[in-house]
Amino acid sequence: MKIYTKTGDSGNSSLLGGRRVSKADPRLDAYGTLDELNAWIGLLKEQEALKDHSSFLCDIQEELFTMGSHLAAENLAQTEAWKLPTLDHRMVVRLEMEMDRLDAGLEPLRNFILSGGHPASAMTQVVRTVCRRAERAVVSLLVTLPDEETRLQPVVVVLNRLSDYFFVLAREILRAEGGLKPHVWNPHAGGS
């Protein structure tokens, strides 16, 4: 099978059921941003500082791929016809449990913090921001497809919780890498 099909040369792509849409379609923006998020997580999990989190990050990647397939399906009938895995809140529960576990070992957060302190922590903050962009893309899609909101709402909930998880994980990396302190935002430092 050839990787290049040339079918997208005109600026169109196919949804799961085969219908051709513009590559500017909000549906493609939403699942394309999930794909970007998934790629960033793939890079993140290969960092030495994340070796103890690699398995959970793989599970998150699997969930993102499932969510992307649901975004590529036009309706519930297509998800059933293609036998897509069910969207539910199991990942939300897992993310919350993992955040609680990690947060228990962290100092209470009293200030806004800036990204940095360790390369893997900074990369995790980048992943968090891509996750927030993916969330916004899915919410924008649901505005254009109000009939699909019930079916796709779990995607929004997972992405919302996932970005919180990456924030906690970035802080945990600093702790695990020798108790590095985050750079606390100084609201007066950037002023003129």
Number of strands: 4
- Average of the residue pLDDT scores: 88
Instruction: Characterize the quaternary organization of these chains.
Output: single chain
The radius of gyration computed from the alpha-carbon positions, rounded to a whole number of angstroms, is: 19 Å
Which strand order do you get reading across the main beta sheet? 1-2
Helix percentage: 55-70%
| CATH fold-type name | Hypothetical Protein Ta1238, Chain: A
- Which parts are unreliable, with pLDDT below 50 for 5 consecutive residues or more? none
Please give the alpha-carbon distance between the first and last residues. 59 Å
Task: Supply the CATH architecture.
Answer: Up-down Bundle
* CATH class descriptor name: Mainly Alpha
Structure report:
- The protein has a single domain (23-105, 114-182), classed as Hypothetical Protein Ta1238, Chain: A (Up-down Bundle), CATH 1.20.1200.
- 27% of the residues are buried.
- The termini are far apart.
- The chain has helices at residues 26-45, 54-72, 76-81, 90-103, 119-144, 149-176; strands at residues 12-14, 20-22, 113-114, 183-184.
- A two-stranded antiparallel ribbon has the order 1-2.
- Strand 1 (12-14) and strand 2 form a beta hairpin.
- The protein is built from 6 helices and 4 strands.
- The protein is elongated and about 50 Å long.
- By secondary structure, it is mainly α.
Fold topology:
Elements: E1 12-14, E2 20-22, H1 26-45, H2 54-72, H3 76-81, H4 90-103, E3 113-114, H5 119-144, H6 149-176, E4 183-184
Antiparallel strand pairs: 1-2, 3-4
Helix pairs in contact: 1-2, 1-5, 4-6, 5-6
